[in-house]
């Protein structure tokens, strides 16, 4: 039977790798659902999922297992409007997701030492934006994050998407059977297009250690985006480009987990 949600501040010390459901309220009063993996440590790594995914994405689960095996607590959670968290799903929402992450980090800091934040895909872009705004975590690990946010839109929304959204005010994205997966409003689209990852990268503090990991065979977000982060972020290391790995690291999950662990436990950049 699942345990009821509790505050991590009041949670009892649990055996290694024990999972506990935790609720964190964001600044909009929405409840964000997360899973805290206890490994008997005062350190915690926060894991951020990608677009239209959730805390139960296999990458999040595998990373949490790898971290707890190394003696670090891990916290994976659903951004607002995703998974079990409250709120409305939005196509853009980069800044709000950074705010969600801030609520989570602030909550965890009440009891734990937040060692790093790790984000995959859209979550990778969110952790970059987070570091540029808040600057309250010592380490960021970006997994296949997108630098050029204007790219990838046409693949999801179709050609002439700006004309369509200006005319209708929204675009419904459908699956192959014609069912609506989600609605893209003009406001959410413009929030994405107006989020400047170049400026965000330049404004990250030199005190923040930053790592990027990417797959060389990523067809969703090309590896060139990783090189742009490496070029602009002050205290940055392109930890590794995993050869032949796709966007989801489907056949390279162990290499991904090892690269994340190596980044977090490394002594120097």
Description of the molecule:
With 269 residues, this protein is of the alpha/beta class. It folds into 2 domains: 18-149 and 197-265, Rossmann fold; 150-194, no CATH class. 33% of the residues lie in helices and 24% in strands. The protein has 9 helices and 10 strands. It has helices at residues 58-69, 94-108, 122-133, 153-157, 161-168, 186-193, 197-202, 224-232, 253-265; strands at residues 18-25, 31-38, 43-48, 73-77, 113-120, 139-143, 170-174, 180-185, 209-215, 236-242. The protein has an 8-stranded mixed sheet with strand order 1-2-4-3-5-6-9-10, sandwiched between helices. A two-stranded antiparallel ribbon has the order 7-8. The radius of gyration is 18 Å and the shape is globular. The N and C termini lie far apart (44 Å). 44% of the residues are buried.
Which segments are poorly predicted (pLDDT under 50) over 5 or more consecutive residues?
1-16
N- and C-termini, Cα separation = 44 Å
Helical region count? 9
Per CATH, which architecture of the largest domain? 3-Layer(aba) Sandwich
Number of domains: 2
Helix content: 25-40%
General form: globular
Q: Using DSSP, what is the number of strands?
A: 10
List keywords for this structure.
269 residues; alpha/beta; eight-stranded mixed sheet; 9 helices; disordered N terminus
Q: How are the secondary structure elements laid out?
A:
Blueprint lengths: L17 E8 L5 E8 L4 E6 L9 H12 L3 E5 L16 H15 L4 E8 L1 H12 L5 E5 L9 H5 L3 H8 L1 E5 L5 E6 H8 L3 H6 L6 E7 L8 H9 L3 E7 L10 H13 L4
Parallel strand pairs: 3-4, 3-5, 5-6, 6-9, 9-10
Antiparallel strand pairs: 1-2, 2-4, 7-8
